[in-house]
Records
---
Amino acid sequence: MKKAPVPYRKTVFVCTNVRADGRVACGNPGRGGVELCAALKEGAKRLGLKGKVRVARTGCLDLCEQGPNVFLYPDGEWLSGLAPADAESILKGLT
Ligand code: FES
């Protein structure tokens, strides 16, 4: 095992999990998780956060009914019920 320092100051984990069986999931059509992730990635680039803030897709964070959900690392903050329009304020809160 090789240990290395975290390459980003902050990481925004965005649930984009999709379920085809009818159960609720952040990435299902109409839920907004995929669009939120795209808005966060675009916003990070536009705000000059590339290399400082990493926006990463993640699987289920186990609060599906409250999604779309985001987990901020290393802050340990959890955000729920988000929409793509929230991307900018999330990113500005990290700087
Ligand atoms: S599908 Fe997003 S938290 Fe479960």
---
Amino acid sequence: MASSDQTRLLLVEDVPQVAQYIRGLLNSQSTVKLLDVLEDGAKVVAQAQQLRPDVILVDALLQGRVKGPQLVEQLRASGLRVPVIVLTVPQNPVEADPDRGIHGVLAMPFSGFDLMNRIATARKEFATISTTGASRIFSVFAPKGGVGKTTLAFNLAVAIGQLDQRTVLIDGSLQFGDLRALLKVPVDAPSILDLPTDRVAESDLQDVLWRDPSGIDILLAPPRVEMAEMITTRDVDKVLSLLRRVYGAIVIDMSSVLNDINLAFLDLSDTIIEIVTYDSTTIHNTVAVADAFRMIGYPASKVRYLVNRADSSGGIDPTDLERAIGRVPEHKVVSDGILVVQSNNEGVPFVLANPAAAISQDVARVAQEVLAVHGLRPVPVAARR
Ligand SMILES: Nc1ncnc2c1ncn2[C@@H]1O[C@H](COP(=O)(O)OP(=O)(O)OP(=O)(O)O)[C@@H](O)[C@H]1O
Ligand SMILES: [Mg+2]
């Protein structure tokens, strides 16, 4: 496990002597871990998505297809949300400007002390910027199984991540670990159970989260059914408060029961995205859950209904659903059997595999709308109905 304040650094440097000098400075200490040295600017965004560094150091004079300043801009626009320090020479002055993705500048020559100091400051300042922004918890719930919770939670999390929110997806389906199956994660991949039970620190997350190639981080469920019982409601509280400090958006894929664990997830959610479909059992259960939520004291606005497979009414009049829930559902997502099955089989989100498909556009719109509810991002005019 990483020590609590270890910083994971990615260096982008095409001058071997400079890379070697920095390696040398970092060799004698353990607070900064050098993950890799990349020479080709064109590969950095993809590599950073895989490696998930805490800080990236970029040579302003980087040559090649993607030059230094261009790379800094690419990293800013990538939604990775990693502080970038630009390495330069006095003849090429660069100014720190977080709005342009430059969170620190280091001019040569510099000492080991300067390097460590700049890295620590950039990371700390960036964390402050990130956490002063509001963090929101969205649980994807349904009172009936098999209605698309896992599929939609995964794609919604990726779509929210695309909107520049640092996003984590929690596999709250603790017994069966639906996301493990969907993403074909190895059995020994760490899970929520691997988080220390006391004094959980931000750095512990590094060892426990699954870095999905889709760009989001995932907190997996335990690998075996019986292990779900080891998670307590206190663990849920701790995990969510920790994730809130690091992520702009937390999406939870839930199971279909109202037990203590699920109520802990729901209590702490800012918005419950409740999936409904046009079938009579779902409608019946949705009404029962609405009663339960009312008794618990959740305001009606905490729930937003999402009709999944909204284009296949299965013989049910959509107004029956509206009458039952007492309002028009806030969101609709169409069916797309071929794309959903194909993407789920490959463990990739359809919002990335085929962003132009109607189902992907629907999910992207849900992402914009749920963020807009919390003032996190205005809904673009084109997305309004
Ligand atoms: N909009 C959609 N279009 C086509 N197929 C869909 C759609 N949404 C979900 N599905 C399919 O429905 C099935 C169930 O989806 P999923 O596993 O996401 O549901 P769930 O609610 O998480 O189930 P569980 O209750 O078992 O956790 C999957 O086979 C998925 O491919
Ligand atoms: Mg599921």
---
Amino acid sequence: MKHPPMQQQMWSADDARPQGAGSAGPAHTQATGASRPLPQDALIIIPLRSAVLFPGVLSPVTVGRASSVAAAQEAVKRELRAGFLLQRDPQKADVTPSDLYWVGTAGPIARYITGQDAAHHLVVQGESRFRVLEFLEGWPYMVARVAMIEQPRAEGPEVEARFLQLKERVGEAIGLLPHMPDQLAEAVRGIESAPALADIVASLIDAKNEEKQDILETFDLVRRLDKVIGLLSARVEVLRLSKEIGDKTRAKFDERQREHVLREQLRQIQKELGEGEDQAADIEELRKAIEAAGMPEEVLKHAERELKRLQRAGEGGGEYSMLRTYLEWLTELPWKPAPQRPIDLAEARRVLDEDHFGLDKVKRRILEYLAVRKLNPEGKSPILCFVGPPGVGKTSLGQSIARATGRVFQRVALGGVHDEAEIRGHRRTYIGALPGNIIQAMRRAGTTHAVLMLDEIDKTGAGGFHGDPASALLEVLDPEQNHKFRDNYLAVDFDLSRVMFICTANVLDTIPGPLRDRMEIIHLPGYTEEEKIEIARRYLVKRQLDANGLKPELASLTDAALAAIVRDYTREAGVRNLEREIGSVLRHVAMQIAEGRAQHVAIDAHDLAPILGARRFENESALRASVPGVATGLAWTPVGGDILFIEASKVPGSGRLILTGQLGDVMKESAQAALTLAKTWTGESLDKVDVHVHVPAGATPKDGPSAGVAMFLALVSLLTGKPVRSDVAMTGEVSLRGLVLPIGGVKEKTLAALRAGIRIVMLPQRNEKDLEDVPAEVREKLQFVWLDHVEDAVRFAIGDLKPVARN
Ligand SMILES: Nc1ncnc2c1ncn2[C@@H]1O[C@H](COP(=O)(O)OP(=O)(O)OP(=O)(O)O)[C@@H](O)[C@H]1O
Ligand SMILES: [Mg+2]
């Protein structure tokens, strides 16, 4: 490379005025120089400190020197191509023609953007090589007469062979560079012209500027291709070698440098194109958020890596928005250890009492649980699980606990969750992937000082095709594992160990065993009539007054009205429908008051019918009265206890037992056993009849055996033609020898009997101990008949015998 300086002139980088001999006065030159036309074969020259522009390459260029700024502005203004020349010493500020290489690339300035500082940014489209013939003077920037170098013809086997070889090498290099942006790799692969490929590779390759300049100056295409292939092969070799010997450090270092350069260029281009502004602000914001998020070391590193990827990804691309969303998720999670407030037990008790009426046993268990946590905050406390029918206050107790402990409450609905990914998230490779609902709840909570309520954990679908939600939940709840909970989307560990988890369920038996083992089960069986009235009086009426924009002075419900709503318009273990009915009544009142028809409305029991309609629940057991073959059973259901009528009838046949209705296999066995027993009881031959037993929907199949006594009595009643007393309800399992075996759910079942207006309950003798769970007011209102043997039941409910109450 030889560029005999043809003219010696001194150029200042600051004002770019020629200061050499023979020039006109500086002031004159500057005033007129800019507008002086250029000779036909002259170009405005912009020196580049440390980059070689190649034809066919769009490249960002930053100019700072006043002469360069003036040159660029002039070229843009006059829509002229500029010539770009590499300077020999990048450090040198004041360059003269002898400081420059004399071969460069000419091209138009596609964009010109004035930067905030002294730097101005250009996007330059390299078009063709040129050689400087001579530098001219008289302009406030460098001007040179040049000769354009024609693009060589790319023909012949010589070129073809090298082109193929270069392509192959490019493929190898791309394969070895993990951080190569995809679009770039695609673009390079798609190039079909040998000189273009050579130039682009030369421009992208991680080589010294002198080496690049040498390629620029090699006009002969075959030799140029050889040089590029040589350079690229060396790079590929280095990459491969370092990969092979496992010495990744150097490779990484190179990579990083290269990546940095590429990213910087990309940033510049985007900035020039006016696209960068938002993105730069975006990235800056994310960077700050990452710094502020208080992530653990490992996560922080990961986030920074992803931020770099984001910078590389062009805005508008799918990758950009994916990464951005991801980083937003990452930064918005509560990483910082939350300040742990010691639990104030007195305050907790106050809050629990304030929010919920009754539930003394439940509250006591909760306070015990909190006390243990207070004494040993780091300890592995079990997970509370509230089990009970709908509307008994499971969810709202969870909210109370949060309030009592100063934690944030968040609810995760698990009902109907079948896919593990709903809990643990989808990998980011899925389109539209999101974190699972645990991490989502953590983001909503904004702190790990939270109560996370896993609602309806019993309704989680059993695993299957999409993995097992239960095993994911196990990982969430297990103190051994949950300090490193891994969501598929986040792909970094999140510490859940400080979160207080509370589960709710209607039934226990659908909760997988391992999960149940982690839990401390607290039953909420449902409320008595009195409790419901009290809850209504203290909480529900107030809440519904508020909800309907009424003040207590304007409307009220008498206790009799509340009792009537409880008894005649609702039949439930909890208080949800009760609250709804109270709401309906108050809406009606609000209407009257709004229309000015009343000042104050007090609703009494007899006012209800016009508002709520006819009583919805009559005394069913009385309605079904005295038909032989009907007995009233007591069942346990997920929504609390319930009564159910078991109906037996005879049809001509051949001695078969026909079962219809809601019957699990267990129930079938009980029915068969009951029939066998009933036969011996009556001694009647059943060869010419089929016995049909119908059990209506409602009971759970698993509860089947507890209908044994009722089925037996229905059958005996049928066979003897004597009705079963309609004011008696019964539950109990029956053995083949006629012994009455104990059952579960005594409290729910007795509450249900009372709700249905039944006064006498027959229970297995061996359940007598469970009576202590039954609220006193229920015990007082009911009469209990204890059964050892089915004979006891027959004697009391069919035979003409006096009740034998033993409680
Ligand atoms: N003992 C109580 N004292 C005051 N209000 C109560 C009591 N029990 C329940 N409630 C109220 O009844 C309503 C229903 O309770 P909640 O939503 O907690 O029921 P749940 O047990 O979670 O039911 P589900 O199983 O249907 O989710 C709430 O408004 C709650 O405040
Ligand atoms: Mg609930």
---
Amino acid sequence: MKVCFVSADSDNVRKVEGKAGDRLLDLAQASGQPLEGTCEGQMACSTCHVIIDADDFAKLPPAVEEEEDMLDLAAGATRYSRLACQIWLSDVFETLTVRIPSEAKNMQGR
Ligand code: FES
């Protein structure tokens, strides 16, 4: 399967290969997406905030309450927002399309 990362301004689109069980945050970071993931999945930051394509969003298991609470703190959150540290790829996706919010910054602040 593929994950399609789209920049906030849609100027950059990057497709990467993934497999069931891969964590979205790990794939994003490995492909150079500007997501910090400061707390490494402990649901204590929201620096891994992404916006999922609406059709793909419907295929994801719902966010747990702690994730919803962290998303309330994410800049630019939408109804399709999720935390990339809480999403694992599965066979329900041929391509998962993910938008990186404009507020995202990587470790170098780019
Ligand atoms: S890495 Fe901190 S909430 Fe996802």
